[in-house]
Amino acid sequence: MRTEIRIGGFGGQGVILAGIILGKAASIFDNNEAVQTQSYGPEARGGASKCEVVVSDSEIDYPKVQSPDILVAMSNEALIKYIVDLKDEGTLIVDPGTTDVEDVREFIDQHNIKVYEAPATKTANDEIGLKIVANIVMVGAITKITGIISENAAIESIKDSVPAGTEEKNIKAFEAGYNLV
Amino acid sequence: MSEEFFIQGNEACAKGALKAGCRFFAGYPITPSTEVAETLARELPKVGGSFVQMEDEIASAGAIIGGSWGGTKSMTATSGPGLSLMQENIGYAFISETPIVVVDVQRGSPSTGQPTMAAQGDMMQARWGSHGDYEPIALSPSSVQEFFDFTIKAFNLAEQFRTPVFVMADEVIGHMREKITVEDDIEIVARKRPEDKDNFLPFKNVENGTNPMPSFGDGFNIHVTGLTHDERGYPDTNDPKAHHELVQRLCDKILNNRDKICSVQSGECEDAETIIVSYGAPVRSAIEAVQKARADGKKVGYVKIDTPWPFPEEQIQELCANASNVLVVEMNLGQMFYEVDRVLRNDTDVHVLGVIGGLLPTPDEILSKIDEIGGN
Fold first, then answer.
1. Which are the contacts of A86, defined by CB distance < 8 A and separation ≥ 6?
2. For the purposes of burial, counting CB atoms within 10 Å of the CB of A109, is it exposed (0-12), middle (13-18) or buried (19 or more)?
3. Contact between residue B340 and residue B350 where contact means Cβ atoms under 8 Å apart
4. Residues 6 or more apart from A83 whose CB is under 8 A from it?
5. CA B155, CA B162: separation in Å to the nearest integer?
6. Which residue of A24, A33, A61 to mutate against B (max B Cβ within 10 Å)?
7. Alpha-carbon distance B95 to B225, whole Å?
8. Of B8, B9, B149, B314, which one has the greatest count of Cβ atoms within 10 A?
9. Which helix (H) or strand (E) holds B89?
């Protein structure tokens, strides 16, 4: 089965890395197939940042996301911009610290969207003491909520993707996110 | 043993170059190819190689020609605007029979166009960009794995035929991340070097067209020039026969070996009434379009061109022999379309879906076009 995930946020929140971790976990450590793409250009620096991952148990031909099954919004701008592409009965994961789901309530109700709140930024601040690991907290929440990758694959992928010496803090962040929901 | 990586196409290209034995990169960074240079800048010194960021693109092409004559497998990577600027030295590499690899990660064009968007607008530039008659080899990857594999293949073909080889990628393949598997036992072609210092002729009119190649400093008395030259490499510019023999040999050494160079892949062509012909990233959309069409009971197949140059005309004719419609899908307004049309037009209606603007054509766009041309 093919699952399409889009993660949107501000530049600097690490949404690209979050997507790379998901893709690597799925393809290298869970032995599924995955393709990760991202938006480039001025849009990727400072303003909105978007990362997309397709995960499948069979070969992925068309590599881009067309209508996501899962939308992860780490900024309100991303939430409003990308919600319209989300599939009916799709999954929406938001950071309530940086988004307001009431802004898209109408769409959520009309399309039977399943909404999950994962306070990634607050958790990163309060539990890890590092705001910059909010993306990894979110990977934990995505893993738990969607089951798109296994917990073990996520941990291996994080270890393989973050700078040497920061593995422990990042695994803690992942676990905090995993236990949020 | 094999290793797996989840990396970008451009990183896979750099990895392939290292695996193929590339130890010299000279280039001028340009989006969307920059990660090739970045990766090699980091990795080449670790394996005893060299990386030079040049002042511009023509100098980059000059530097890798020099690197190759110095005995080192050499490469550059660029995008359309850079490829335009390299053309003079690319012609020099063809006439001096210098193995080099030129990677072009194509973006929206003409001119500086759309730096961050995908395109395939340089296909004819790879074919005809430098002046004069010559036969280029070009490979177009459709996945991150193929960007790795085809970069190695490009080095192998460059050495085997003593000629420049293009890897014509696009922004989609350059920037997306996928899993690649790196096998231990990859075939690497080493340069054939001459032995007899007294009697060696580096540009001899040999039957298979390709001579061994000495390096500067090996002690061979040779001369390398962009002028029409004799078998020793000395200018011989007024003898029509000498010029004809030289240029004909340069072309024939590629054309007469098309069976060894040309490569296509295909699916569902046997009973197909409509066949999609594509290369590079759009192949991904074509394959998905074929699956959707088949699920609807429509007889659609695909041909994927691995080697746009030399154009695999016999393979395409054979695979499309029974189709009533052929649709070429490419990210330009029609370039390889003219080649496909040239070899099929007597028997088949050839159409084009040319998509510019920077986005990969979707499977649905292809299916709509097939409906429009009346294929089923």
1. A67, A68, A71, A92, A107, A111, A113
2. exposed
3. yes
4. A71, A73, A92, A104, A107, A108, A113
5. 10
6. A61
7. 8
8. B9
9. helix B80-95
Encode pLDDT of A96-137 as tens digits. 999 999 999 999 999 999 999 999 999 999 999 999 999 999
Q: Which residues contact A17 (CB under 8 A, 6 or more apart)?
A: A135, A161, A162
Residues 44-63 of chain A with CB under 8 A from chain B are 60-63
Nearest to A40 among B6, B175, B363 (CB): B175
ipTM field: 0.95
B59-105: pLDDT as tens digits: 999 999 999 999 999 999 999 999 999 999 999 999 999 999 999 99
> In terms of DSSP bridges, do strands B114-118 and B2-8 run parallel, antiparallel, or are they unpaired?
unpaired
Do the beta carbons of residue A118 and residue A136 sit within 8 Å?
no
Answer whether A37 sits within 8 Å of B179, measured CB to CB. no
Q: In terms of Cα–Cα distance, which of B172, B210, B179 is closest to B192?
A: B210
| Cα A130 from Cα A121, distance rounded (Å) | 9
Chain A residues with CB under 8 Å of B288 CB are 61-62
Residues from chain A that touch B294, judged by Cβ atoms under 8 A, are none
Distance from CA of A83 to the nearest CA of B (A): 21
